[in-house]
Amino acid sequence: MPAKATILSADEIRRGLTRIAHEIVERNRGAEDLAIIGVHTRGIPLAARLASKLSELEGVEIPTGMLDITLYRDDLSEVAHQPIIRETHVPFDIARRRVVLVDDVLYTGRTVRAALDALIDLGRPLGIQLAVLIDRGHRELPIRADYVGKNLPTAKSELVKVKLQETDGVDIVELWDLEDVK
Question: What pTM was estimated for this model as a whole?
Fold first, then answer.
């Protein structure tokens, strides 16, 4: 069964990330004191791409890290009997840094809430901003992204699949009917 629709091609993903990088520089008046942290799984390669674009724009190296939110999920007992814990690797002090948290899709906001809790356990940053490739709506918590690649109104019966070269061998964002994915 093919996807219902292709939402973003590889070029559109690249352009969206480039636009977000420019918006980050504009809002923060440069990239000094910035750090980029990706949320497992697809937030990590997106964070690396954003950090690379920011480095190109500003000529400074942007510290990057990866965050596993598994133990901070409010539905941990419902997700799996034996949850898979992945690596959190933030090789720098987040205090006195403006952290841009990166994820692929913003949906209910519960993943971001868990990521904020996990991040705060690492220290007290100057501020936290949120960048997502897709904002599909249906928020259950009062969370809003600062930077969005594409706003995509969806039905709850739909699924947004972000595939990236680093994790899936291809860059594409697709919309599926949830029934067709099961």
Answer: 0.95
